[in-house]
Amino acid sequence: MVDMINTLVSDDKAYTTDDGVYLSISSVPDYGLLAHQSLDDMLSGGGDREVFGASNKRHPSDFALWKFSKPGEPSWPSPWGDGRPGWHSECVVMSLDLLGEGFDLHCGGADLRFPHHENERAQAVALGKTFANHWMHNGFVVDIEGEKMSKSLGNVLNLIDLLEKYDPRAYRMLLLQTHYRSPTRVGQENIDACVSALAGLDSFAARTSAHSNGTPDLTVMDQFTTAMDNDLDTTTVMALVFDSVRRANTAMDTGDATTVSSVRAAVVEILGALGLELSLGDDIDADIVAKGVALDAARTAKDFAAADALRDELQSLGYVVETSKDGTRIRRG
Ligand SMILES: [Zn+2]
């Protein structure tokens, strides 16, 4: 960090004031790129302490690369005086050191776009280096009323608790249903909705498992690629998945095996790419599977008392028993 700041100082792109070393943002022609604001707009807007805390800076938007320490504060030596690096300096040096110039993707929360990421990038540009090719800023996780989760509001849902209670795929699905730049609402009702949507997808995969040898439907795959190319529009992709499942289910009912296998293959491929592996329920122990087979045999023989007894037994062991005209499917409840 000291080396980087030294380079900027000797290139006259940074300078010393009475409280630190500052980057001269006039050395960064496109400053404001991430904030989507020109420098003039930022100045007339005002109000940001980090940007507008001008004392003897050359320009109000110049920001600290190195802050001199006050007595008793933690500090490290530097050619300009003891102090500590600015937050933006840490990040730009780490990124360029570990990832190199022109790395592909820089992510972060929407609140980091400005000033943090703007100022990281500004330092790289001032150094004459290519920084991130793409920036992606995600929306906040909010509660069901749209309020940002925060400890002080007490509306925080702990991810570890969430994953203990629910299938982790349900939370993943919830995230995928919201575009990453939008706030993600997380609450009981939409987690429940995802749990049951997942059960629907799993049961679709099991119901159509005899048609698992198809090649993915090209139209569906094209729609998938187009949506993902559009700034990772996973909201549209999830709608496409549920649409395709409906189509395949209809095809199943009308005995159109070609459509079932190609649409099923597309759904499995898309969900696999999104990290949502479907469960066919084949992680069930053999003796439980045998009870399901016996249940089907009892139904075929119209021995409904025996079928009911087997169903009760499976349910009391914690399994969900789904019976359709294609047979009985057992999954963990
Ligand atoms: Zn950073």
Structural summary, described in words:
With 333 residues, the chain is α/β, with parallel strands linked by helices. It folds into 3 domains: 2-138, Rossmann fold; 151-273, Isoleucyl-tRNA Synthetase, Domain 1, CATH 1.10.730; 286-332, no CATH class. Helix content is 48%, strand content 13%. The protein has 13 helices and 10 strands. The strands form 4 sheets. Strands 1-2-3-4 form a 4-stranded antiparallel β-sheet. The protein has a two-stranded parallel ribbon with strand order 5-6. Strands 7-8 form a two-stranded parallel sheet. Zinc ion is lined by residues 91, 116, 120.
Set down the secondary structure blueprint.
Blueprint: H1 2-10, E1 14-16, E2 20-23, H2 39-45, H3 49-52, E3 63-68, E4 83-85, H4 87-98, E5 105-109, H5 113-126, E6 134-138, E7 141-142, H6 159-165, H7 168-177, E8 184-185, H8 188-207, H9 218-229, H10 234-253, H11 257-273, H12 286-300, H13 304-316, E9 319-324, E10 327-332
Helix pairs in contact: 4-5, 7-8, 9-10, 9-11, 10-11, 12-13
Bound molecules: zinc ion (ZN).
